[in-house]
Amino acid sequence: MGRKRAYAIKREILDLILEVSKENFPNEFAGVLRCEKGIITEIMLLPGTISGERSALLRLHMLPIDYTVVGTVHSHPTEYNNPSGADLGLFGKFGYVHIITKVPYKPDSWKAWDLDGNPYPLEVID
Ligand SMILES: [Zn+2]
């Protein structure tokens, strides 16, 4: 169990997340994170997340349970990346690390959270 904990994310994945966040603005995008040996190496974008701001995240509810998923990622079309009440409700269903990006989607416009909405330390590695 301990070994499966994500402690880092690959920089190219983070760059991709920020890029997709920007492309989808002013809508939200959402996806799930997969991890290999403690490092987040893959995001799975949810198809068809082109509708309203709120629906991207709601689509996560429709995913089948997948045990390789360590958490979620979604964008906020605002300057705040604190999890909302709805976000926290969802976090419990998918793994243990959740990334939220915010405007302007610069390299530091993201933060990782745990299930309870506490900051989750995630190292960025090249
Ligand atoms: Zn949110």
Tell me what the structure shows.
This protein is of the alpha/beta class. The chain has one domain: 3-Layer(aba) Sandwich (Cytidine Deaminase, domain 2), CATH 3.40.140. Helix content is 20%, strand content 29%. It contains 3 helices and 7 strands. It has helices spanning 11-24, 55-58, 85-91; strands at 8-10, 30-36, 39-45, 69-75, 97-101, 110-113, 123-125. A 7-stranded mixed β-sheet has the order 6-5-4-2-3-1-7, covered by helices on one side. A hairpin with a 2-residue loop joins strand 2 and strand 3 (39-45). It starts with 7 loop residues before the first strand and ends with a strand. 30% of the residues are buried. The site of zinc ion has 7 residues, from loops.
Major sheet, described briefly?
7 strands, mixed
User: Would you identify the regions where 5 or more consecutive residues have pLDDT less than 50?
Assistant: 48-53
**Reported CATH architecture:** 3-Layer(aba) Sandwich
Helices and strands, in N-to-C order?
EHEEHEHEEE
Global morphology? globular
- The CATH homologous superfamily is named Cytidine Deaminase, domain 2
**Spatial ordering of strands, largest sheet:** 6-5-4-2-3-1-7
Overall number of strands: 7
Mean pLDDT: 84
Tell me the helix content. 10-25%
CATH class descriptor name? Alpha Beta
State the distance separating the first and last CA atoms.
25 Å
How many DSSP helices? 3
